[in-house]
Amino acid sequence: MGKGDKRSKRGKITNKSYGKSRPRKSNKKAAKKG
Question: pLDDT band at 9, cuts 50/70/90?
C-alpha cells in the first residue's frame, strides 16, 4: 500500500503504469503526476 506497491493506485503512478486501480483516462491526479 505504498509507492512500491504496483497493485495500488499510488504505486502505478510511481511506476508509470495503468490498470484497474488507475485507468488511462479521466484521472486528474494521475495526469498531474505524469
Answer: confident
Query: Which positions ≥6 away from 20 have C-beta within 8 Å?
Result: none
Q: 11 and 18 in contact (C-beta within 8 Å)? A: no
12, 22 contact by CB (below 8 A): yes
Identify the DSSP state of 3.
T
3-state SS assignment for residue 31:
helix
Spatial separation of the C-alpha atoms in residues 3 and 25, rounded to whole Å: 21
Cell triple for residue 19? 490498470
Give the Cα separation of 23 and 9 in Å (integer). Answer: 9
